[in-house]
Specification:
Helix 7 runs antiparallel to helix 8. Strand 12 and strand 13 form a beta hairpin. It contains 24 helices and 21 strands. The two termini are 60 Å apart. It is an alpha+beta fold.
């Protein structure tokens, strides 16, 4: 072949690569990018078809488009959950290039390992017959798995080293392009969020000004009256001629009630806004509810000689709702109607059933609301002054509370009005509160199916190990949302588990479930919120309780008692439990959402791996490393979320050591270079092991980064200086200190002074100098002096591999 011919043949791939690079750099939309990529990939790889499937981290599904060579645009869209033994799962789990062949078949083709059963087929809508050779390449950016690229050939293809290099190069280009567009999208989203946040801050500032105005007017009025009448009473103490005491005390009492209502309005709205108010549903008779409301609103009706007319039949039956909140809705609407009604008028309350919905109407015949003000009547602190009326009192929160309560029930509220004719408020509610019930029912398999029950029980065991606690229980709501029962426990006897039932809102677990707030009790017998005697089965008076959330809904709580060290739990423990609870909730949600196709074994395997690593002393066996890491992170001004993640990682970061043989970990000789390389693979192994329960990229980055060196000579990625996450630099210092002071099979433990001296020697090479300096100051100021055994008990040696030599 002539040189000219070789030059022509060699120019085509170069032109294609140049064109691909231009397409990648110029595309700012995912669909445009993928279409351009498909054209260039099929040309460069000489392939017949191409598919790019991106990973949805929430559902674990792959979604994308399929392209055929010679066809413009996508020939099919697919969203698929990889089958456990399927072709896609092999690409995802191995995170390496996988080649497979399959017999041709029209339409949807089986993308699975040869001989796979129909249940293990990944449906990909190839046009015509399925490719004879399929190549799957994972799309990776650093440690983040973005998805899978599929390249199909209608012929048998041998994957040579050259073809493999080309495919890996293309996968890298795809990953960079997708990551760049996603980053751009995230940046645009953040900028939009920033603009919205600025607008919200301006709105909050305006609301604050409104609140100050209301406080200065509405609260001052009753306070002025209270003070005036109280002073008059004091001036006339002991004077028999003064006979107005009872009248004055009555006025003071009314004004105090008025103040109390204002404060309660603000608190109620705050609780509903924050999501801490759970519905305590019951079957509520509408007719009975209206009868119970009448005594509450009677004073307001009598003041203006108003008549309350009811059109609520007993035959309407019941509606599933929170009776206290629904009563508050009616009270607020009737009070509002009374304010704007003329003396001697009527207020009508009616209700009707429309299929699966209930409609409640409250109508007055007063001054009405101007049309231009209707849209704002449910805004906080907004008050419509009646035409020709004096100032109308109140906080302007009554209707805002109505709207929040109705929406909490899954309903809507609206208003229509005509000036001079009155206003009509209409509430539309579902007759049944199905959303929460359906969610709880979807968790039933965890309470009945053996493999899911095992996962639940391993979760409480894992929590006990991570929290160094002897008693842990998982409590879930009953389907009606009125009670909590124990569904899995560690350290509790079976009788206690069987008989424990807590009503929502009652006791500790009920309060946490209803408010969705984390709770630390240092001494149950002296805590003003609960004040109860400590049960004999609890060795300590301190406990933790945090909400367990699935699909962003509180479905139960996690209780932790009996800290093994015998000391009280602290805020760092609470933060750690919160981090663990989020991961347990996410794991349960993923298994729940996947239904019968869920890979329960993988999730259960991760949970059991954490238990095994803790018990094999591969993870810090005392709280010292955890406490030192969180205290050091706090000194370095890590924010609350980062501290929570750091505390969790400090407990589990070396889980990847499970992939290293016990003979190597327990050996009494120094490791050879090959043995060191084997051990150095454990960060990646740890990330893989945690994947079924881990959702925060920060966790993976810290695990992968805590063996990186300040000078760039660490592993696994050779990062340096600020490229290494700050939390990882913190963990590196604490981990090395822990390793040196607990020792190894082949050498004695160093004293804390010796370990600290070694850290200082390696500052600027292995460790961040600023972190080492802060750590030195931390040790100098901590309550336990250097050289003592531990922060919270005796140390159990762990063969931590990170000793500084």
């Amino acid at each position: 072949m002539s040189g000219a011919a070789r030059g022509q043949n060699g120019a085509s791939p170069l032109r294609a690569l140049s064109s691909l690079s231009f397409a990648v750099q110029s595309a700012f939309d995912t669909r445009v990018l993928v279409t351009a990529l498909a054209e260039h990939v099929t040309e460069l790889a000489q392939a017949d078809s191409f598919a790019l499937l991106l990973l949805d981290y929430e559902t674990a599904e792959l979604e994308g488009d399929v392209f055929e060579r010679g066809q413009r645009g996508s020939v099919g869209h697919v969203r698929v959950r990889p089958k456990p033994q399927g072709f896609l799962a092999r690409v995802l789990h191995r995170e390496t290039l996988v080649v497979d062949g399959a017999p041709g078949a029209p339409g949807v083709s089986p993308d699975a390992s040869p001989g796979a059963s129909p249940s293990e087929i990944d449906p990909i809508p190839w046009r015509g017959s399925a490719p004879e050779t399929r190549i799957g390449i994972p799309i990776l950016i650093g440690t983040s798995l973005l998805g899978v690229a599929l390249v199909g050939f209608r012929r048998r293809v041998t994957v040579t080293d050259r073809r493999r290099r080309v495919l890996h190069f293309l996968a890298d280009q795809i990953g960079l392009a997708v990551d760049r567009i996603r980053t751009r999208g995230e940046l645009e989203s953040r900028l939009k969020q920033l603009d919205e946040a600025k607008a919200e801050l301006r709105r909050i500032d305006d609301a604050k000004s409104d609140l100050i105005s209301i406080v200065s007017h509405e609260l001052r009025t009753p306070l002025t009256a209270i003070k005036a009448y109280a002073e008059t009473l004091l001036d006339n103490v002991g004077r028999p001629s003064f006979t107005m005491q009872e009248n004055f005390l009555g006025i003071i009492n009314e004004e105090c009630d008025r103040l109390s209502r204002m404060v309660n309005d603000v608190l109620d709205l705050s609780r509903m806004d924050s999501g801490r108010r759970r519905l305590k549903t019951d079957q509520v008779s509408l007719a009975r509810l209206v009868r119970e409301v009448r005594p509450t609103v009677e004073p307001a009706l009598q003041e203006k000689h108003l008549e309350l007319r009811e059109d609520v039949s007993e035959s309407l039956g019941t509606v599933e709702a929170d009776p206290d909140l629904l009563k508050q809705v009616l009270v607020n609407l009737i009070h509002n109607a009374a304010k704007f009604s003329r003396d001697g008028g009527e207020i009508d309350v009616a209700a009707e059933i429309d299929g699966e919905r209930t409609r409640i109407t409250v109508q007055d015949h007063g001054v009405g609301i101007p049309e231009d003000k209707l849209a704002r009547v449910f805004d906080r602190f907004y008050r419509v002054e009646g035409e020709g009326q004096d100032h109308v009192g109140g906080t302007g929160l009554g209707l805002a509370i109505v709207k929040s309560v109705v929406e909490l029930h899954g309903g809507t509220v609206g208003v229509d009005s005509m000036v001079g004719r009155g206003s009509r408020f209409v509430i539309d509610l579902p007759r049944e509160q199905r959303g929460f019930r359906v969610l709880i029912q979807s968790l039933t398999p965890f309470f009945e199916q053996p493999e899911r029950q095992a996962l639940l029980h391993h979760c409480v065991e894992m929590i006990a190990e991570v929290m160094d606690a002897r008693i842990v229980s998982l409590m879930f709501y009953t389907p009606d949302g009125t009670e909590l029962v124990i569904q899995a426990a560690y350290g509790l006897d079976t009788d206690t588990v069987a008989r424990t039932r807590v009503r929502a809102g009652d006791s500790i677990a009920g309060w946490v479930a209803q408010t969705s707030e984390n709770l630390l009790v240092e001494d149950i017998e002296h805590d003003r919120r609960f004040r109860k005697m400590n049960h004999p089965q609890y060795e300590t008076k301190s406990l933790l309780c945090v909400p367990l959330k699935v699909a962003d809904e509180t479905v139960g709580v996690i209780n932790v008692n009996n800290k093994r060290a015998g000391a009280a739990f602290d805020l760092d423990d609470l933060s750690l439990l919160s981090a663990v609870a989020k991961r347990v909730g996410m794991a349960l949600d993923r298994v729940r959402a996947a239904g019968q196709s869920a890979d329960v074994d993988a999730t259960d395997g991760t949970v059991q791996a954490i238990i095994r690593a803790r018990r094999n002393n591969l993870l810090p066996s005392t709280k010292r490393a955890f406490k030192l890491a969180t205290e050091l992170g706090r000194r370095l001004q890590l924010d609350k979320d980062d501290l929570e993640v750091l505390g969790f990682v400090a407990r589990v970061h070396d889980i990847g050591m499970l992939t290293v043989g016990d003979d190597l970990l327990q050996s009494s000789h120094r490791w050879s270079q090959s043995e060191h390389r084997e051990v150095q693979g454990h960060p990646q192994a740890g990330v893989q092991l945690l994947r079924p329960i881990e959702f925060a990229s920060k966790v993976n980055e810290i695990i992968l980064g805590h063996h990186e060196h300040w000078d760039g000579r660490g592993y696994p990625r050779g990062l340096s200086r600020e490229q290494i996450p700050l939390a990882a630099r913190v963990l590196a210092v604490v981990d090395a200190f822990e390793a040196m002071t607990t020792g190894r099979p082949y050498r004695e433990a160093d004293t804390e002074e010796e370990a600290l001296s070694e850290l200082k020697r390696c500052a600027g090479t292995q460790f961040d100098p600023r972190v080492v300096e802060e750590f030195t100051q931390l040790l100098a100021h901590r309550s336990v002096a250097p050289g003592s055994a531990a922060v919270d008990g005796t140390l159990v040696p762990g063969w931590n591999h990170d000793a500084v030599h």
